[in-house]
């Protein structure tokens, strides 16, 4: 228990003399009846060093430099502001039975958002983040999946592939170049990894600025309110907190067949692979598989996707098939209805040579193929089974490992919450994790009530031709609302940029699904086309506001864009009218 006399940990006078300001702060604390520990820098031998270290920790060079209950308060102005707002009094009264008000396990999208928001609200927060190396030995820095092995490197590699496409289009626009153009994997990867390194650093800095304690250790509950943190050297330290947030995310799944962990890579390894993967087999057919297959083919590699059942399960299947057929036209091979049963190394190397034996899901047929790299993208497992949840009674779904929570992200153990990819039945997307984490902190510590709205979350699959959507797939809409209650408007379209470039005029596609019995409200939005992510974002906001077909018709388009196509949709699917675009 921290005593009153320990409430205020440090009050620094200016070097040389105690400034008048410091005296004023002293008076403030004395008027509040708080005893402080005061370190007068001009009265200690190593005052200059202390000031140096403090300025590093707090990003503040000036004095007085004030900590309350080990939370950095700032200087004189901030202390008086905190007093005026009542925050200072709250901090002084804090229940200090525990080391922290909040410990967040997992420093990814959700965990960092929650921790930082809680710290902004004046709480004493710790984040534990530790990356267990992949079976191939890959690990990374602070920031979680999105920054290190997800959205960020994926989108940058997608961009590398789009630039390749732009290069070939550019000749039609008059660019002349004689040099043979080829792609260099090492240069791309190094540049992307450098960017990621800067993001890792900025996250650390941001935590420091907000006085969130960051510990690079693996967290595991040992008993109620107590966690054991084990660092890379195996050193263990225990910490206690009043509240916990689990934000440990997921890691790629393996097939469990001979040779998979030894010879295959996953998305955890791909983005920092120090050599070009060469001829690649991608196993899986959802977001990760198709996006990776897309950019690998886009940078010139020979790519095959092995599909167990359907493309992009859960997505509108008409759109999914269009995504696949565009990829196929652009050189990606699809092996449908096969699953690998064995991976064998034929040659070592960077890359080496692997033989893959696969069997049909429909009959006894088996096939073999030789590849340089096998990328497994068959889904991800929640990192919840080795964090001591059983010690404190937090329930997980035994089959999936996911954590069920109520609509306040609270687990069955009242002081333990969870956000992000570990949640059962929620979308696994970075902005979802961030929103949930931020709102959770505000509810826990800021007196706010807003809950995370998981409905109508937009998303985009960054395949060579992007697919953006929001709301229901056509299949789901029919299941929920019945076909006769729906009107589907759709069209193929030809982006202006594609005309001169001589690209196909009947590939890009836009579709909305409307509920006829709710004012023709748009309940499903789908676009396959360039920059689909950018287009979808704005329409998602409109859907939040209750977008109807009439409102779309009343909206004036921006010409010439892809997005404007939604303001002029006339043909219903039920009419069966031709939606193809004329022109060559
Ligand atoms: P994470 O970001 O995974 O963070 C969890 C952190 O906790 C990790 O750092 C982990 O090492 C750490 N950890 C785990 N256990 C412990 C422990 N016991 N102690 C300490 N630390 C621990 N989403 C999008 O919105 N857009 C995209 O374009 C997109 N692309 C993606 C591409 C790929 C290849 C992948 C794999 C995912 C992609 N996602 C995308 C999904 C997105 O990355 C996740 O939804 C998001 O990162 C989830 O955040 P989180 O906080 O739940 O977990
Ligand atoms: P996923 O959506 O769970 O898909 C797994 C894929 O692997 C499916 O195609 C599945 O086929 C296949 N599969 C599973 N087990 C298999 C096996 N034993 N053999 C062969 N194939 C198998 O996983 P994911 O693609 O890894 O994505 C995980 C999450 O990350 C997504 O839900 C998404 O939210 C997020 N993400 C988002 C983005 C983005 O926003 N752009 C990008 C990437 C990832 P079946 O259909 O037959 O089951």
UniProtKB/TrEMBL annotation:
Residues 25-72 form the Glutaredoxin domain. Its main location: cytoplasm. The keyword tRNA processing does not apply. It is found in: Cytoplasm; Microsome; Nucleus. It comes from the Eukaryota. Residues 457-568 form the Pyridine nucleotide-disulphide oxidoreductase dimerisation domain. Keywords: Cytoplasm, Developmental protein, Differentiation, Disulfide bond, Electron transport, Endoplasmic reticulum, FAD, Flavoprotein, Methylation, Microsome, NAD, NADP, Nucleotide-binding, Nucleus, Oxidoreductase, Phosphoprotein, Redox-active center, Selenocysteine, Spermatogenesis, Transport. Disulfide bonds join 146-151. GO terms for biological process: cell differentiation; cell redox homeostasis; cellular response to oxidative stress; glutathione metabolic process; spermatogenesis. SUPFAM superfamilies: FAD/NAD(P)-binding domain (SSF51905), FAD/NAD-linked reductases, dimerisation (C-terminal) domain (SSF55424), Thioredoxin-like (SSF52833). The active site is at residue 559. It is an enzyme of class 1 (oxidoreductase). The keyword ATP-binding does not apply. One of its GO terms (molecular function) is flavin adenine dinucleotide binding. Residues 100-437 form the FAD/NAD(P)-binding domain. Its EC number is 1.8.1.9. Binds 1 FAD per subunit. PROSITE patterns: GLUTAREDOXIN_2, PYRIDINE_REDOX_1. One of its GO terms (cellular component) is cytosol. NAD(+) binds at residues 284-291, 379. FAD binds at residues 155, 219, 421. It catalyses: [thioredoxin]-dithiol + NADP(+) = [thioredoxin]-disulfide + NADPH + H(+). Belongs to the class-I pyridine nucleotide-disulfide oxidoreductase family. Displays thioredoxin reductase, glutaredoxin and glutathione reductase activities. Catalyzes disulfide bond isomerization. Promotes disulfide bond formation between GPX4 and various sperm proteins and may play a role in sperm maturation by promoting formation of sperm structural components. This is Thioredoxin reductase 3.
């Amino acid at each position: 228990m921290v005593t009153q006399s320990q409430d205020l940990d440090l009050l620094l006078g200016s070097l040389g003399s105690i400034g008048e300001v410091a005296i004023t702060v002293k008076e403030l604390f004395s008027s509040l009846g708080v005893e402080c520990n005061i370190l007068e820098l001009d009265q200690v031998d190593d005052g200059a060093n202390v000031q140096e270290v403090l300025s590093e920790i707090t990003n503040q060079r000036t004095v007085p430099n004030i900590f309350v209950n080990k939370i950095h308060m700032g200087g004189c102005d901030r202390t008086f502001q905190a007093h005026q707002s009542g925050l200072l009094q709250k901090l002084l009264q804090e229940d200090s039975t525990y080391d922290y008000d909040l410990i967040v396990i997992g420093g990814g999208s959700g965990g960092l958002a929650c921790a930082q928001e809680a710290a902004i609200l004046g709480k004493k927060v710790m984040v534990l983040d530790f990356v267990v190396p992949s079976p191939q030995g890959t690990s990374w820095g602070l920031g979680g999946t999105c920054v290190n092995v997800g959205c960020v490197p994926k989108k940058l590699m997608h961009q590398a592939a789009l630039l390749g496409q732009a290069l070939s289009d550019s000749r039609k626009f008059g660019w002349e170049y004689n040099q043979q153009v080829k792609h260099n994997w090492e240069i791309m990867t190094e540049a992307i990894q450098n960017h990621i390194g800067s993001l890792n650093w900025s996250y650390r800095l941001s935590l420091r600025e907000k006085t969130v304690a960051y510990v690079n250790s693996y967290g595991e509950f040992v008993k109620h309110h107590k966690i054991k943190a084990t660092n890379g050297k195996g050193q263990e330290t225990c910490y206690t907190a009043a509240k916990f947030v689990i934000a440990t995310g997921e890691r790629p799944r393996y097939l469990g067949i001979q040779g998979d962990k030894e010879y295959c890579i996953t998305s955890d390894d791909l983005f920092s692979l120090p050599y070009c993967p060469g001829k690649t087999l991608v196993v899986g057919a959802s977001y990760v598989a198709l996006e990776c297959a897309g950019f690998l083919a886009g940078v010139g590699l020979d790519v095959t996707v092995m599909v167990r059942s359907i493309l992009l399960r859960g997505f509108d299947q008409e759109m999914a098939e269009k995504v696949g057929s565009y990829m196929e036209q652009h050189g990606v091979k699809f092996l449908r209805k096969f699953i690998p049963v064995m991976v064998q190394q034929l040659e070592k190397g960077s890359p080496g040579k692997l033989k893959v034996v696969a069997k049909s899901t429909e009959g006894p047929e088996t096939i073999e193929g030789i590849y340089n790299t096998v990328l497994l993208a068959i889904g991800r497992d929640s990192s919840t089974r080795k964090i001591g949840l059983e010690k404190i009674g937090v329930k997980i779904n035994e089959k999936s490992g996911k954590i069920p929570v109520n609509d306040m992200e609270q687990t069955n153990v009242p002081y333990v919450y969870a956000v992000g990819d570990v949640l059962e039945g929620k979308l696994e997307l970075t902005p979802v994790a961030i929103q949930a984490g931020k709102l959770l902190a505000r509810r826990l510590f800021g007196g706010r009530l807003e809950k995370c709205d998981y409905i109508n979350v937009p998303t985009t699959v960054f395949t060579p031709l992007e697919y953006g959507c929001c709301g229901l797939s056509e299949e789901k809409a029919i299941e929920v609302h019945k076909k006769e209650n729906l009107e589907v408007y759709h069209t193929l379209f030809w982006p202006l940029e594609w005309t001169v470039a001589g690209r196909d005029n009947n590939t890009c596609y836009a579709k909305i699904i409307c509920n006829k019995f709710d004012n023709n409200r748009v309940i499903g939005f789908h676009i396959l086309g360039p920059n689909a992510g950018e287009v979808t974002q704005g329409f998602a906001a409109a859907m939040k506001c209750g977008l109807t077909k009439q409102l779309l018709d009343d909206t004036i388009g921006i010409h010439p864009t892809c997005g404007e196509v939604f303001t002029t949709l006339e043909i219903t699917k039920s009419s069966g009218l031709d939606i193809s675009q004329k022109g060559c």
